[in-house]
Give the backbone structure.
Amino acid sequence: KTSMVKALLKRDDAIRVSVSHTTRSPRPGEQDGQDYNFVTHAEFDQMISEAAFLEYAEVFENKYGTSHIWVKEQLALGIDVILEIDWQGAQQVRRLMKGIVSVFILPPSRQVLEQRLQGRGQDDASVIALRMSKAVDEMSHYPEFDYVIINDDFDQAVQELHSLFLARRLRQEVQQLRYEGLLTELLS
C-alpha cells in the first residue's frame, strides 16, 4: 500500500484496499495475503482462464491482478474499495463495472517522483530508471480519470482523496438506501 492509502485507511474504517495477486517475488518484509497474494505464473494464468480478475496487467515483467469476487463482496457489504492499479487496469475496470470513481494521483514534478522512488529503497537503480522512462507515458493517461490529485503536500492530498469518498457517500441515492427507515418516517 502506498503511504497515501495507509494514511487514508487510518482515517476511515469503511474503506478497504484490494490486495492484488502478483507473480513477482516478495520484497523484504512483505507478507503473502497482506501486501500481495503471491502466486506463480501458472497459477496467475489459470486465474485468467477462470475470469477471476476484475483487471490484470503485466507491469515491469510481472503480472498483477485484482480479484473480481473479493471486490464485489466488499461492495455488497457497503465497503468502499481502493484499487491501486495502473491506467491499463483502470480501463479494464471501467469496462466491467459501472459507477466507479477513478482517481489519478500525480507527483508535483518528475524530479520529486524520482527522489521518492529512490527514497523507498526497494528498487535498484535499473528498476528506477525503467520506471522513470515509462513515467511520462503513464502520466499521459490522467485525462481518462474522473479526478486528479497532485501529491505535493501529503496531508492535503490525503484529505482531498478522503473528500472524494465522503462526497460519494452523501449522494442522494446512497443516503436514501442508508436512511430508508428515517426518510419514510420523516415523510409520513
Remarks:
- The radius of gyration is 18 Å.
- The longest strand covers residues 53-59.
- The mean pLDDT is 93.
- The beta strands are 15-17, 21-22, 37-38, 53-59, 62-67, 80-82, 103-106, 147-150.
